Amino acid sequence: MGDIPSISWRKLTGNKFVVALCRAMLSEAGYIRQQNIRRTGDDGKCLFEVEYDRDYVMEFIGRKICKPLFSIGKQGVLDLVSNAWDYCYPNTTEKATTLTE
Fold first, then answer.
1. Confidence of residue 62 (pLDDT cuts 50, 70, 90)
2. How many Å apart are CA 22 and CA 28, to the nearest integer?
């Protein structure tokens, strides 16, 4: 994108799953965010354009939602997400969209 080096989220060290999810991550182009990153062996942080994609979303959901709730099963997790959606958006009607729009 410019003079700032790019790096995939996969190459980050430490906790990779601190960036909140956004819809752009589901697009073909993905989501690029400028972040100050300290790479292993470097003294200080450097500015990078970190590329996030659909795989990040899947890993994030898997680690933050599916894995901790594994014991209630897939249907239990899906029911819980459905209830959470209704709780957060009680006065909305769902409009169908594709994941990549």
1. very high
2. 13
